[in-house]
Write a structure and sequence with these properties.
Nuclear Transport Factor 2, Chain: A; 3 helices; about 15% helix; alpha+beta
């Protein structure tokens, strides 16, 4: 079965414009990694284990002191935990997503690496220019309809289409960002339209 991947973003400022692409993100400094021992994914809602809570507080404490160099002005308001891993070398890696007014910033993410409770590296990218007005001028329902119309598919979707508000930094690296909706349309009908 052939799979195509579709990613659509709809611009809210001054009307809808189709934008595609990913922003680069610099990885944390490469340290020797052992075998994976523990993993935690925040979105699974399992309740945060102690080893994650401790590592998160240590990371936030470090970033409160040193985060301005990374472009962070308010650690607690601008960063949310995505996941954590720990290896048999006692290294813990936290992936923290950038948000602005509770809206995810596309491509904004930091990875902190801790060894025995000390932050030894921080990598990633924070978009200072993403601090924009997060009041949408278009409803999520209209953004979803526009994405469906742009795709031109009239069959059933594998999942109900949903629009999620996202701050999209300028693709060319210039200052600025746009409030957008990210709409994922999943087609799984066995034809050449199958994809996401």
């Amino acid at each position: 079965m052939r799979r195509n991947h579709w990613s659509r973003f709809f611009t809210l400022a001054g009307g809808l414009a189709l934008v595609a692409g990913l922003q680069p993100f610099a990885a944390a400094a490469q340290q020797p990694q052992g075998d994976l021992v523990k993993t935690y994914i925040e979105s699974q809602g399992q309740g945060r284990p102690d080893w994650v809570a401790v590592a998160l507080e240590q990371s936030k404490s470090y970033l409160r002191s040193h985060g301005q160099a990374q472009g962070i002005s308010n650690v607690d308001a601008e960063l949310t935990l995505r996941n954590a891993i720990q290896d048999d070398l006692k290294q813990t890696h936290l992936r923290l997503d950038q948000t602005h007014n509770g809206v995810p910033v596309f491509g904004g993410q930091l990875v902190t690496q801790l060894v025995e409770g000390d932050v030894v590296s921080v990598g990633g990218r924070i978009y200072e220019s993403a601090r924009i007005d997060t009041t949408p001028r278009l409803s999520s329902k209209l953004a979803t309809r526009a994405a469906i119309d742009a795709l031109g598919y009239r069959g059933e979707f594998a999942r109900t289409p949903e629009a999620k508000l996202v701050v999209l930094p300028n693709r060319d690296g210039t200052e600025g960002a746009t409030l957008t909706y990210k709409v994922e349309l999943a087609v799984e009908d066995g034809t050449d339209k199958t994809g996401r």
